[in-house]
Design brief:
Helices cover 46% and strands 16% of the residues. With 1079 residues, it is of the alpha+beta class. A hairpin with a 2-residue loop joins strand 2 and strand 3. The termini are far apart. It comes from Umbra pygmaea (Eastern mudminnow).
Length: 1079
């Protein structure tokens, strides 16, 4: 691993050229003879680099300095990390030459400019820039620059930076990373903090945190010079960031050009105070309470070892310590001596500690975290437990300053021990720990363990750190931002995921419908007619084409027969007539075989003659059709409109599921695919049905077909990922689910399923990332819709479907309800469920909105029962979830789909007991009715269905309610009620069964005409329903129509009519004396 500044690296010379000063306003001369000289001084990392030559200043004109200086990089004093965060400070100075009466020369600091060397770390060997010259207070430039700002003529310096070779090689550049730490503001600081005055000491507010720069070196990032501000001053958004430097002569030079602090909503942060309940407190603290402002950015250049070390340290302990303190700015020593008094002057007061959760930096693609972090009283034991560190950064920094005999308030960088030493804390005990042992009466002969020492020190700190306790009492928090130039864990780009999905499921273009059988034979015959006609026209043009030329005599209409005879003679003489017959022979044979269904020779001459006549008529008709298409420009082929569209087919398929007729449902789904195989939604519907029947292989085939047609079909991508995980193909599952999050980054369901997948893989960091993103998207959707916080609402008035992509707000957590649910087990119990339970696919319960309940809705609709069980398990420990009414309702649906009706009944009762609002939900009573209907208790089912229909608001799906209630009325003989219910069902969602129920009700009421009309409609929608034919036979028997009664009866027998209706038909046949062909 190539180090950035390892031993043996040669030094690289960095040359700084100050070319020219622009718009420099000099001081007013006392007299014309006074001489004013101007020069520029350069400084880097606290080291003076040199001064330019002194130039005579002409009023309001530029100066050509042409001054060059530099420093050596990679040596002991200037490292690449210094280049990252330290600017070159250029100071412009005016020198008033001494006159006879003056004792010494007068020196005036005009202003200062900052040159950022960061482009050198991006691989550039040279760059030029124009930097603003910030005036010092009272300088001649200050007043003039205010006027020049409006004119766009600010004083500036033209600077050029060059290096002979890149500071970083290509390998180092690709493996290094630039980290930026910004400490913004600490809010709600202790009330005892007051601004300095003439009678009060001045304080310095310091924050610090450790950061690994290389694999062997950890730096302490120290942020000094925090400014205490009074209440009532809200920090402006978009304020500039500051250099990590000490006091400068030009105050405006503190700001980094082009870098500003842009806040974001609290709910989008990663910190502690992100909940809705904390918004009022934060608004109050940021408006009406004292705060300490730093607004300072510190850059760190991490090499490959430092990046790896940072990653491993975050993985080992996700909490990162940020220490805060207040110290006096008075000197620590007297007369250059360091004694007891000096140590007391440097004691840490108001020692606080904030814990920054750095784990989000391990999320794929995350490069920045920002948040508000609570400040706690400093405690060694707490520091060890939470961060696995034993060294206080600020203590080490204070100790280093004391040893050096001066306080480096202008330094933001101090080297501390290596990572191993930081974590081990050294072997020697401190003076404080020894004193604590004495105070607590610990025997001096015994050597306590490290843990005991820390516990004793913590007990002492709890007594002594009363100042730090004020942070907790005031609820002080500090806003920190940590950003990386490159993410620690790269995120696969959407293009790569799309490519991998396409490799797993190649794109399949939609195929045009190809005719076959008789249709293909007729089309081939028409094509041959067209071809022969074209060739005959070409021969005609060769014979008589000259007559069609301009200025030629037109053909005589009376000689048409003569031209026809000449054309036939030419075709016969040339052999083309015979060739035409041979060309058409094969197509005619196919018509005979495919269309006429004749494959054997005729033995009867009359039959042969009749067949030839029939064939001749057919061929001539098709010839005219083909010639009309060829010769008519306006001819358009009209396709007969199908009787049923795809939406009706899906409706009929789900109705067949409702009644347990899986064969009929399969037929409808396949018919839908036959109509339009290029629609991925059709494949998804069929795949969800196959999940219902536990045919996972067929379901996976359907979902993959949908993805092959549309690589961005989100529901199919999610189901492919779920099935891949069930099959143990975890790499494929991750690819599908990650691709789904790229297709729709705002999808709550996609992110939640992605998080559940990572939970199954025990990847806690990635799981946390996905679930947090799901919560953010749900929260953002709630804000966009102007909704109230979902955590305060038990049951929402409406739940949006997954296909519509509408998601709402709340946060989630991690858990499982059934520990025995593991990937690969499958939904084996579905095959044992009674078919009629599957109607709940069409019943959408209005669930409470957490990310898990939103996901459960999609999973139950898709029949992914195993994953739905896992999602419900996570709902149990979700802070906004838990065992609520919405949870019980979803769990009841899951049990009903699995055929566990006792458990479903228990959960429905718990849902009603948990919330009064559930009793006003028509979907809940519809679900109760379905449960009683499945258990055979039709009386209770009738009560629940009637209550469902009595609500002012309709249930989400009224079709199964109306259908089942209507047939219950028929069974009880309440035909008038049944007729009204079926009329309503036929109006809202007509189907074969609704028309059948209406026909039966009318028949029982003696309304034969209405009954026949309804049964005819039912027969039109499905002519393979035996019961429809049976009741048509009964109507015909009552109406005295013998032939129709016999035909209907034969079809009913062929389709295996049930015995109850069959017995009624036979009894009526015996009564009227006809209707049975066997008589």
């Amino acid at each position: 691993m190539e180090q950035l500044n390892g031993a043996g690296e040669k030094a690289v010379s960095v040359k700084i050229a100050v070319l020219r000063g622009n718009n420099l306003f000099s001081s007013q001369r006392a007299n014309k003879a006074e001489s004013i000289l101007n020069y520029v001084s350069a400084e880097f990392n606290g080291v003076a680099l040199g001064d330019s030559q002194m130039l005579d200043v002409l009023e309001n004109q530029g100066l050509d300095y042409n001054f060059t200086c530099g420093f050596e990089c990679f040596d002991a004093s200037h490292t690449l990390d210094d280049v990252a965060h330290q600017p070159v400070i250029l100071t412009v100075v005016e020198m008033h030459l001494k006159e006879k009466k003056q004792k010494e020369e007068k020196k005036v600091i005009v202003g200062q400019a900052m040159v950022d060397l960061l482009p050198l770390l991006h691989g550039q060997c040279s760059f030029s820039t124009t930097v603003i010259l910030h005036p010092t207070p009272g300088s001649p430039v200050e007043a003039a620059s205010l006027e020049s700002n409006s004119k766009g003529t600010q004083p500036s310096l033209d600077v050029s930076i060059t290096v002979p070779e890149p500071l970083l090689s290509d390998n180092q550049l690709s493996n290094s990373n630039l980290l930026r730490v910004t400490v913004e503001t600490a809010y709600s600081v202790p009330e005892v903090w007051t601004p300095a005055s003439g009678f009060m000491p001045s304080y310095s507010y310091v924050a610090g945190l450790p950061m690994p720069i290389t694999a062997e070196k950890v730096q302490a990032l120290i942020f000094c010079n925090g400014v205490l501000k009074l209440n009532g001053e809200r920090e402006a958004n978009g304020r500039p960031r500051k250099w990590p430097l000490g006091p400068l002569l030009a105050p405006a030079a503190h700001f980094i050009p082009g870098l500003f602090i842009d806040g974001e909503p609290a709910e989008m942060e990663y910190g502690d105070l992100t909940s809705i309940e904390e918004r009022d407190f934060r608004n109050e603290a940021e408006t009406n309470k004292k705060r300490v402002s730093w607004d300072t950015e510190r850059r760190c250049l991490l090499d490959a070892g430092g990046t790896a070390c940072l990653t491993s340290m975050i993985a080992e302990s996700r909490l990162w310590p940020v220490e805060v303190m207040r110290s006096q700015q008075a000197g620590a020593t007297k007369g250059g001596r360091t004694g007891k008094g000096g140590e007391e002057d440097n004691q840490i007061s108001f020692h606080g500690l904030a814990y920054v959760d750095m784990a989000p930096l391990l999320y794929p693609g995350v490069r920045c975290i920002r948040g508000a972090y609570l400040v706690h009283p400093f405690d060694d034991a707490d520091l060890l437990v939470k961060t696995k560190r034993k060294v206080s950064i600020l203590r080490e920094w204070i100790k280093a300053q004391t040893i050096q005999g001066r306080v480096k308030s202008n330094s933001s960088l101090t080297s501390i021990q290596s990572p191993s030493k930081v974590h081990d804390g050294g072997q020697k005990g401190t003076k404080d720990s020894k004193e604590s042992h004495k105070k607590l009466g610990m025997p001096g002969k015994h050597s306590p363990t490290v843990t005991d020492s820390l516990m004793l020190a913590a007990m002492e700190q709890q007594q002594d750190n009363t100042e730090g306790q004020m942070y907790a009492d005031s609820r002080t928090y500090i806003i920190i931002e940590i950003a990386l130039e490159k993410s620690l864990v790269p995120k696969r780009p959407p293009e790569e995921l799309a490519k991998r999905v396409m490799e797993l499921i190649p794109h399949r273009p939609s195929l045009s419908r190809r005719p076959a059988g008789a249709e293909r034979a007729v089309q081939d015959y028409q094509a041959q007619i067209t071809s022969v006609a074209r060739q005959v026209l070409e021969q005609y043009q060769q014979l008589f084409g000259s007559a069609f030329l301009p200025a030629e005599k037109p053909l005589d209409p009376t000689s048409q027969e003569q031209r026809k005879t000449q054309l036939l003679g030419e075709l016969n003489c040339s052999g083309k007539y015979f060739a035409f017959k041979e060309q058409m022979k094969y197509s005619v044979v196919r018509v005979v075989r495919e269309k006429m269904l004749r494959t054997e020779a005729f033995t009867d001459a009359e039959q042969l003659q009749a067949f030839i006549s029939q064939l001749y008529v057919f061929l001539v008709d098709q010839m005219h059709v083909a010639l009309n298409k060829t010769l008519s420009a306006d001819a358009q082929e009209t396709q007969p409109r199908p009787l049923l569209d795809c939406s009706q087919l899906v409706h009929f398929a789900k109705e067949a599921q409702l009644n347990g007729d899986y064969q009929l449902a399969t037929q409808y789904y396949q018919e839908q695919l036959t109509r339009d195989r290029s629609n991925p939604a059709h494949w998804f519907d069929y795949g969800a049905f196959c999940m219902l029947t536990a045919d996972h292989m067929k379901a996976e085939e359907c979902f993959q077909s949908a993805v092959s047609i549309d690589q961005t079909h989100l529901p199919s991508l999610l189901m492919c990922g779920i099935l891949a995980e069930m099959g143990g193909l975890f790499v494929k599952a991750e690819t599908f689910l990650e691709r789904a999050t790229c297709v729709d980054p705002a999808s709550v369901v996609a992110w939640t399923l992605f998080g559940l997948f990572y939970q199954g893989q025990e990847n806690s960091i990635h799981a946390e990332m996905a679930l947090l993103e799901a919560n953010k998207q749900l929260r953002a959707c709630g804000v966009d819709r102007g909704a109230e916080p979902p955590a305060q609402v038990e049951v929402q008035p409406e739940v949006s479907s997954f296909e519509a992509g509408v998601k709402r707000d709340t946060e989630g957590s991690l858990e499982t309800s059934n520990q025995d649910s593991r990937p690969g087990d499958g939904d084996k119990c579905v095959a044992k469920v009674e078919p009629s339970t599957m109607q709940h696919l069409t019943t959408s319960i209005r669930l409470k909105n957490t990310i898990y309940m939103e996901t459960v809705q999609f999973l139950l609709q898709s029949n992914a029962l195993q994953m739905a069980q896992r999602a419900l398990g996570q709902e149990l420990l979700c802070p906004e979830g838990g065992p609520s009414s919405s949870y019980y309702l979803a769990l009841a649906r899951l049990h009903m789909l699995r055929g566990d009706y006792d458990s479903a009944d228990d959960n429905l009762k718990k849902a009603l007991k948990d919330s009064v609002q559930v009793e006003q939900d028509p979907d809940v009573w519809a679900l109760f009715g379905h449960l009683h209907h499945q258990t055979g208790d039709h009386g209770k089912a009738q009560d629940c269905y009637e209550r469902t229909l009595d609500f002012m608001t309709d249930a989400t799906e009224t079709h199964p309610v109306l259908l089942r209630l209507g047939f219950i009325y028929l069974q009880k003989g309440e035909f008038e009620k049944a007729k009204l219910i079926f009329l309503r069902a036929c109006k809202n969602s007509p189907s074969c069964l609704t028309w059948l129920g209406l026909g039966v009700a009318c028949y029982r009421l003696g309304e034969l005409t209405e009954a026949e009309d309804a049964l005819t409609e039912a027969n039109t929608l499905n002519n393979e329903n035996a019961e429809v034919w049976g009741y048509l036979s009964l109507v015909c028997l009552k109406s005295g129509r013998k032939l129709e009664a016999e035909q209907s009866y034969k079809y009913a027998l062929k389709l295996k009519l049930q015995d109850s209706v069959l017995c009624e038909i036979k009894a009526l046949q015996d009564h009227v004396g006809f209707g049975n062909p066997c008589f």
